[in-house]
Structures are given as C-alpha cells and as structure tokens.
Amino acid sequence: MNGVETIHKTIVSKKDERIYTISGSDEGNAGVSNVAFDDNSLDYEGQSFLNLKKTRAMTLAWNNIDVYTIPRGGTCCNRENNTREHILKNVNGFVKPGSLVAIMGASGAGKTTLMNVLTNRTGNTVTVSGLVTLNGRVVGEEISSISAYIQQDDVFIPTLTVKEQLMFRALLRMDKSYTKEMRLERIEEVLTELNLKKCQDTLIGDVRIRGISGGERKRLSFASEILTDPPIIFLDEPTSGLDSFLARNLVATLKNLTSRGRTIIATIHQPSSEVFSMFDNLILLAEGEVAFMGATKEALNHFQLCGLTCPTNYNPADFYLDKLSLIPGQEEDCTNRIQLICDTYSKSESCSLINSSIKDINDTGYNSPSQENVGNLGKRYKATVYEQFLIVLWRSWLTIIRDPASLKIRGVQTIMVAIIFGLIYLRQEINQQGVMNINGFLFIVVTNLSFSSQFVVINIFPMELPVFQREYDSKLYSVGIYFLCKTLADIPFHILFPLIFMSIDYWMVGLNDDVGAFFISCGIVILVSNIAASFGYMVSCLARSTTAALALAPPLMIPLLIFGGFFVNTESVPVYFIWLKYLSWFKYATEMLAIDQWTGVTNITCSAPPCVYNGDQVLNKFSFKKENFMLDLWLLIVLLVSFRILAYVFLVIRTKRCSRNCC
Predict the structure, then answer these.
(1) pLDDT > 90? residue 416
(2) Most buried residue, 298, 366, 406, 537, by CB count within 10 Å?
(3) What is d(CA 92, CA 632) in angstroms, rounded to the nearest whole number?
(4) What share of the chain is helix, strand, coil (3-state, %, to 5)?
C-alpha cells in the first residue's frame, strides 16, 4: 500500500552470536541495510523500524543418549527383577535456532523419555548416559533457566485472572534488571502475541468456577513460559484435547514464535496434515531408536528408500506412525520393518552429516558471550526471598477470598451450626442438669471446630499442590515460602469463623457472663481452630491425594478425641495409651474452657443428691485442675507449632520425591 511494506529480517550478529529480528515498515525496502553492531549495544539507523527484538542463539545437541530403567527389588510375592529395559538406544541429534521441530512415534517409542532427557527431568527411575549440550557446552539442571517446558496438562490457580497469572510469573521469573514498567509492557506484548487480550480480566476457572476456554488455557500455558523470552521451548503434546481448528491456530502461533529466533521442540500425536506441514524438522522414534531426523519434507523420500510409499492424499503423519507401530498378531513383520527403517536412516548420508555436525559443535563450541551465559544460569531463583514472600502471599490471599467454598459456604455453615447448637443448649441454668449440658456443649464446640477447620484444609490444600509442584520445579519460589504464605493467608479466617461461632453460642447458651471469660473462651477456640488446621496441613502433606487425606484424617483424629477427657476420664487411661492423651488438643482445650466457665461459680442448685455444689467440685469431677490452665495453653501452642513443622517437613519430602520421580 502506497509503496510501504512490512519487513521481517533476521540478522545473526557475529559479535555475540545473537539473532536479531527486525520488523516494521519501510518504503521501497530502503534502510534495511542500515543496521550496525558495536561492542556494547545494537544500534540502528532509520526511524521507520517499529520493533527490534533480540533472542540468544542457542544450538541444542544431544549425543549417544542411552536410557535404561532401574531394576526394582523383589517383594515377598515376586522375585527380584534384574533385567533393564533399554528405552533410548544411542540417540543423536541437534536443533538449530529458529526451528519448529516435531518429535513423533508410536506409543512407547521413547518420545517423552527423550524430552525428559533434554530438559533434565528424568528423575531417579532411569539411568541416562550421553551428553546434552547448548552451544557446545554440557548442561544439566541449568537448562531450565534458559528454556521453557510446557507440559501436556494445564495447571493453574482457578481464581486468578489471565493477566494476574502472567503478572505472578513475571514478578517471580523475569530478571531483576526488568523494572515494573518493563514487566507490564512485556505482559501486554505476550497477551497480544498469543491473542489473550480479550480474556485478560477473566478468571482462569476450573470445574467449579466458570473461566476461559480450553484453547485459551493452552495459550496461557505458553504465555506463562515465554514471558522471559526463552530461546528454547519444549512442549509435551501441545495439541492434545484441542479440535483441529484450535490445534492449527496453536501450531501457527508456535511457528510465528520461531521467526524471532526461538527453537521449539514438541512431541505431537496424530497431527492433521495441515498442522504437520507447519513443522520445519521431524524426529521419528521407534522402539527407542531414531527412524528419521531431518527436514519434514524429506521424510517421504526416506520411507521410499525403504520401499514404503505414502498413498496419494494420505496424511504423511498417519502414514509414518502406521509404519512404525507394532500391530497385534503381526509383531515379527512389524519389528523387521521398523528395524529396516532405522537401519536405513543410520546408514544414510543425512545421519552421517548430523553426527559430524554434533561432533563439530561439541568439539569447538561457540566462544561467545552467549556460551558464557549458559554457565551463569545456575541461580535457582530470580526473585529475592522477600519478593517471593510478598508475591506468593498476594496470590494466596486472592485464592482464598475469591473461592466461594472458602468464604460464603463456610460462613453460612458456621452461622447455621452455631444457631442450631445455641437452640439445643438454649439458656442453660446453673443446676445439676445444666452442669452436664454445659460441659457437653464445651466439648462439642472443641470437636466441631476441630473437624470443620481440619476438613476445610484437607478439601482445598491438596488441590493446590500440583500447581505448587510445577512452580517449584520451574524455580519460581522455595517450599518454605509457599508453605509460610499459604498458612499465613489462612490464619485470618481461622480467627474470624471461630469468633463468629463463639459470639453467637456463648450468649445463647448462657455461659459465664463475665466479659473477660468470654474473650478468654474466644481465644481458646481460635487456638483450637488453628491447631486443627495445622493437623489438616500435616495430613494433606502426608497423603498423596485429597481422597487419601480424607480417609487418613478420621483414624488419626478419633483416638485424640476419645482421650479428650469427656468420653474417658483422663485419670483412668490405660498405661499403654497414656501418650495419646498428651497429643490430644481436645483434652487441653476442654479443660481450659471448663476452668474458664466454672471458676467463680459458688452455687449450683441440687434437687436430688449426690450433687456438685460449686465450680471447683465440677472441675474435680472431671479431673480438671485450675493450676493446669497456663500449662494447657503452652501445650496447645506447642502442638500448633509441632503440627506446622511436621507438615512443612512432609511437604519438603513430598516435593523432593516428586521432583526426583518427575511426578
């Protein structure tokens, strides 16, 4: 239009081995050549260029990769199995900057294993030999600092909006050199690039909360990872669960990202012919061996050399997978065909060229700043401890106040149960019958708050752990920061709801009318609620799932309830169970509430002996002692701290085990 056309040019700087992509408008292509590099910066002349982006050029190579399973020891029913399964067999390859690469193969071919090797996520379930290099330098865990790994399942906090999710990632993942304005600018850029602007203020949602669509969730996964503009992006079956239209748009977006110098490697399952044609290069795996590696359009020629011709108007991707799969009942023929394809590739000129290129890369490398940067990316966290604390606490707070199950339902439940209890125990008189009813009410209060506080945690906390595990593996924050922020964000609600409950029931039941006694009882039930929540955190971190935690909690809690001093007199506890009563917060809390209620009560009416005539006799009847009040308080605090510490220890163990096993 009017002689103005959009220009996209990629320039490789010999100075620092970076790829610079220039885009903008220019009249008659004048000014394209007016780009100059100096030692410290990228200078350009001509005001017509609208955008200048730079991405580090990274060549990823892998050489002689062999992966074996680790034999598991035998059990009482099974003998020890010393055989090792050979998952990947001498796999070699490399990927140049600016490439969109597909890894394909039948089920069990080794696609995911190869991806895990390249991203250093194999865990301790297999043994790996061989080298993975970036620009000729061997890399291990530090590859996560220079790459993005987008897994198949999209895991998010459902109560955040799309923009808040990206802000959270930007604050924790982007380098300290980025100012807040630069981070916001980068977020806007990514939202536009991945077509997420229209849903930026929409909650992400889940099965309980209505949110964004499946395609938008998938693009949000990409957006979360490319905020830092990583030169290498790994994807595990990005089109799974998407229809053909969304899959095509998604791969087109990936193709656009490679035009700016990024390298994208994706495992993909049964792509359409249109989607398949968008990939620049193809890696085919079969039975752990490389069946083909090279330009996508050259794969048909390779199969023709093996005597296998793709029918006209047939999807090449389906054809390749069909010829590389084991068909039941034809295993021998299929194995021979697969071996022929793999042997033909291993003896081909393209395979020799690839192996030669890998050797050159690993022998010489790039003596450039970008190579030096590879070795300086080992720092685990980009944000400081204080920054991690503020950001994770902000998200934890939003998660709670936006979740209807945490506030509305729990608030209504608290008020309804309090009113029901208040009506059942309404206006108790200080007589022999009233003594029994009031003591029963005090124990019921402790029991109700214990179970409700515990199960609120157990029903919600385990659902967040997959998100936490993925973010921890991405090196966003530490285990301690997450656990501290999560528990701190919960504390106000473990204060508010017990306070509401006690404020309703205390006066309905007609407990000690002293204002000081009321506030003491409120403090006791608040402490009980937080102890039960701590116990819930401990059980949640100990169990593998919400279902397991719900099954585990009652058997652990019932013995503590029995030895709480109401069902069994604490003085008659069998010696072999004596230790249980010291772990029971029911015992300490009930004793403190009873002391608070009956202290100062000097006249209890009696209609038919035997009777108790004052508060001291009531306490003696239940083996409660006034002098134990402060001891009970300190023991409750000890239990609170101990359960939290145990929960943290279990969470650390669980997190480390999952990181090792890639769960």
Answers:
(1) yes
(2) 537
(3) 66
(4) 55, 15, 30
Closest residue by Cα to residue 48 from 1, 5, 11, 2: 5
Which pLDDT does position 80 carry in this prediction?
52
Three-class secondary structure of residue 421 per DSSP: helix
Residue type, 163: K
CB atoms within 10 A of CB 600: 12
> Backbone dihedral region of 222: left (phi > 0), alpha (psi from -120 to 50 degrees) or beta?
alpha
User: Token digits for 242?
Assistant: 């998407």
Give CA angle at 425 (421, 427), nearest 5°: 130
Which residues 6+ apart lie within 8 Å of 358 measured at CB? 61, 62, 63, 92, 93, 94
**Does the pLDDT value for residue 549 go beyond 70?**
yes
* Lowest mean pLDDT, pick from 82-91, 306-315, 452-461: 82-91
Q: What is the mean pLDDT of the chain?
A: 84
What 3-state class would DSSP assign to 662?
A: coil
| CA 183, chain centre distance (Å) | 22
Nearest Cα to Cα of residue 101 among 250, 294, 310: 294
Q: How far apart are CA 392 and CA 537, in angstroms?
A: 18
Amino acid letter, 634? W
**What pLDDT does 14 receive?**
39
Tell me how far apart the alpha carbons of residues 512 and 524 are, in angstroms, rounded to a whole number: 15
Distance CA 294, CA 280 (A): 9
User: Residue 160 has which token pair?
Assistant: 């955040």
Q: Which two tokens stand for residue 533?
A: 């929540």
Q: Are strands 232-236 and 147-150 parallel, antiparallel or unpaired?
A: parallel
State the maximum Cα–Cα separation within the chain, in Å, rounded to a whole number. 111
Sign of CA dihedral 498, 499, 500, 504: positive
**3-class secondary-structure state, position 551:** helix
Q: How far apart are CA 319 and CA 317, in angstroms?
A: 5
Three-state DSSP class for 63? Answer: strand
Q: Which is more confident, 34 or 182?
A: 182
In this prediction, residue 82 carries a pLDDT of 61
Across 316-345, average pLDDT: 90
Confidence of residue 523 (pLDDT cuts 50, 70, 90): very high
Question: Closest by alpha carbon to 321, among 308, 332, 313, 312?
Answer: 308
Contact 233, 226 (CB under 8 A): yes
pLDDT tens string 465-501: 999 999 998 889 999 999 999 999 999 999 999 999 9
Q: What is the CB neighbour count within 10 angstroms for residue 226?
A: 21
Q: Where in the chain is the domain with CATH 3.40.50.300?
A: 60-146+231-368
- According to DSSP, the residues that pair with 101 across neighbouring strands are 265, 281
* pLDDT given for residue 172 in this prediction: 92
**CATH fold of the domain at 60-146+231-368:** Rossmann fold (3.40.50)
Q: Which of 158, 103, 80 is nearest to 402 (CA)?
A: 158
Beta carbons within 10 angstroms of residue 638's beta carbon? 12
| Dihedral angle, C-alpha 37, 41, 44, 47, nearest 10 ° | 170
Q: In what order do the strands lie in the sheet with 86-95?
A: 86-95, 60-69, 126-134, 137-138
Structure tokens at 526: 């608040």
> Residue 316 pLDDT more than 90?
yes
Asked whether 101 and 233 are in contact (CB, 8 A), the reply is no
581: pLDDT confidence band, cut at 50, 70 and 90?
Answer: confident
